[in-house]
Specification:
about 30% strand, single chain, elongated, alpha/beta, 19 strands, 7-stranded mixed β-sheet
Length: about 325
């Protein structure tokens, strides 16, 4: 067991966490980043990143987040590969305890724990993740120009993904397990009237098939839930859009969360939570865009707000 003391503790190590750490270190605040159980966050599961500024050619998600980590170290961040499992935000100094029985004491906490994609957990899904299976049309849609893709889901996120892809792909097939969509009516109207979109109602995906060399998705095994009839659907890519789960379980008793479990900030658009000295950044925040560049920007903002808070304390 070890005890750590720092003015700023950053929980989470995706673009938001590393960005906050870089700014805090450059302000000579000696920050500590506790990485969590998935160092680098969801970006590590993205194969090619083309929309992060500064890279003329696609960069691997793992490569990009590794560069962020090294940059944070270079400017003075202390990074601990550990997992926070218990918190005490009642009053400063705040105490966070970890899976490795370490204790972290700080004047400020920046929460950047992100959100986890909900996957189908079917055969072939993990195998082809990054090779035709994606959870982000904005990130990966470009690779399917003129091709056929499937979008799985029936809520706002799924329909927004499908409409985005419909302007890129030749054909978009929305697969939904029910006979009605959950999305807002205006989104449903746009989807159902789009010439490049078709909907498979009352259908679930049971398996993802593809080629091993080079790795690529080729087809889906689908089943009609009313007739139990199975069939094979040829596609070039599949986008899973059944939602995200914010990584906020340990904060529920002390922070204000929305109905989905995301952290609410006050005022909206800031990084301040309902508790003084506790800030939140990136995908863990209510209403956030699930984009690496947006998460990095909010990490910067959280650090700047935290600096002002520390200055007021002094």
């Amino acid at each position: 067991m070890a005890e750590y003391k720092t003015p700023i503790l950053i929980i989470g190590s995706g673009p938001a966490g590393y960005s906050a750490g870089i700014y805090a270190a450059r302000a000579e605040l000696n920050p500590i980043i506790v990485t969590g159980d998935t160092p680098g966050g969801q970006l590590t599961m993205t194969n090619d990143v083309e929309n992060y500024p500064g890279f003329a050619e696609p960069i691997k998600g793992q490569t990009l987040v590794s560069a962020m980590r090294q940059q944070a170290i270079n400017v003075g961040c202390r990074i601990v590969d550990d997992m926070i499992v218990e918190i005490d935000f009642e009053h400063p100094p705040f105490i966070c305890s970890s899976e490795k029985h370490n204790q972290y004491q700080s004047d400020v906490v920046i929460i950047a724990t992100g959100a986890s994609t909900k996957w189908l957990n079917i055969p072939g899904e993990e195998k082809f993740r990054g090779w035709g299976v994606s959870a982000c049309a904005t990130c990966d849609g470009f690779f399917y120009r003129g091709k056929c893709v499937a979008v799985i889901g029936g809520g706002n996120s799924a329909i927004e993904e499908a409409l985005f892809l419909a302007n890129i792909a030749a054909q978009v097939i929305v697969i939904h397990r029910r006979d009605t969509l959950r999305a807002d009516k205006i989104l449903q109207d746009r989807l159902l009237n789009h010439p490049h979109v078709t909907v498979l109602w009352n259908t679930v995906v049971e398996e993802v098939f593809g080629n091993d060399t080079p790795p690529a998705v080729a087809a889906l095994k689908v089943k009609n839930v009313k007739t139990d009839v199975e069939s094979t659907l040829s596609v070039d890519g599949v986008f899973v859009a059944i939602g995200h789960t914010p990584n906020t379980a340990i904060f529920r008793s002390q922070l204000d969360l929305d109905r989905q479990g995301y952290i609410i900030t006050y005022p909206s658009g800031s990084c301040r939570t309902n508790l003084d000295g506790i800030f939140a950044a990136g995908d863990v925040v209510s209403g956030s865009f699930k984009q690496a560049i947006m998460a990095a920007g909010s990490g910067c903002m959280a650090c700047l707000e935290a600096q002002k808070y520390l200055a007021q304390l002094k």
